[in-house]
Amino acid sequence: MIPLLQSKEIGPFGRVVGEDNNAYHAHPALSKSKLDDFIESPQFFRGRHITREYPREETKALEVGDMLHKLMELGVEEFDRRYVVSPDFGPLQSSTNRAKRDKWLADHPGVSLIKQDDRTVVFEMRESLLRHPEIRQLIENAECEITWRAKPENLPFAVQCRTDVHSADGCAFTQRKPYVLDFKSIKNLSHGDFRYLWNRAYWDYRYFIQDVFYLSVIGLCGAPADDYTFYFAPVEKEPPYACALFTSDEIGMGAGRLLIRRAIDGLLRSLEHDEWPTLPTGLHTCTVSPRLLETIIK
C-alpha cells in the first residue's frame, strides 16, 4: 500500500500541539516539502515517499535553521538544557575519542551536542529577529511549532503543515487579525538590494507556494484562513545577521495557487496510473542566455 494513500487513517488530525518534529516528518501526509519533491521530479518523489528507495540522509548535526527554530520554540533556558556545546573529545577519527563522546551522551540522556560556533550564530540570529519591532511583536504574541493536519474530501490523502509561529488572536501590528510567521535562514540579505535577494530566494525555493499551502491546510482544520496573513522573516546566518519582514502580494499567491493545483493534479494522475515522469527523451538543443550573449559580443 502506498504510504501517502494510508495517511487519512493515521492521526492525530486538526490543530496538533506537542507533536515533535520527527513525528511530523514521519507522517505520510502530503506536506509542502513533499509537494516540492514532486514538482522537482515525479520519479524522485516516487523513490523517496512511495518506494522509500531514496531515504533522507540522517545527520546528528543540527542545521543552523533547525537550531534557530528550536531556540525560538524552547526559549534560551530550555534550549541550553537540551542542546549543549560539545566538550573537546579530541579528533573523532579515533575510536577511543568516539567512545568518550558516546559515553558522555549515554550519561546525559535527552541532550544533543552542538558546536560553539553554531550556537553563537543562532543566538545572533535570534537577537536580530527580536530587535526588529514588528517581528518581535509577532513572536511575543503567539505559539510556536504547531502541527496542522487535515483530510480533504476531494483528495485521497491527508495534508499537513507545521507553523513556526501562529496566533489566532493577532497583535497590534496585525490589527488583531490572525497570522502565521515563518523564519527563513538565508546566506545573504544585506549585501545588495534586500528585496531582490529575498525575491530570488522566494522564487528559487518556491516559498510562494508555502503560504498558500499552509493557509489552505489551516482552513481545512477549521480556522478562518481567509482572515489570516502569512509573514516571512528571512534572517542572515552570517554577519551582520540582518532580517526583514515580507508577505506575498496577490500575484505571488495567485502563482502559488496555480502551481499547487497543477502539481496536485499531476500527483493524482501519477498515483492513478503509476506513471512517474522523468526528463523527456529525444534530442534537445542548448544555447546561451541573452544576457551572456550580450557580454560576449561586447
Q: How would you portray this structure in words?
A:
- With 298 residues, the protein is α/β, with parallel strands linked by helices.
- The chain has a single domain (3-297), classed as Alpha-Beta Complex (Lambda Exonuclease, Chain A).
- Helix content is 46%, strand content 14%.
- The chain has twelve helices and seven strands.
- A five-stranded mixed β-sheet has the order 1-4-5-6-7, with helices on both faces. A two-stranded parallel sheet has the order 2-3.
- Helix 4 (64-74) packs across helix 5, helix 4 (64-74) packs across helix 7 and helix 10 (207-220) crosses helix 11 (250-273).
- The longest helix has 24 residues, at 250-273.
- It is globular.
- The mean pLDDT is 94.
**General form:** globular
Mean pLDDT: 94
Q: Which strand-content bin applies to the residues?
A: 5-15%
Strand order of the largest sheet: 1-4-5-6-7
* CATH domain class: Alpha Beta
Question: Helicity range of the residues?
Answer: 40-55%
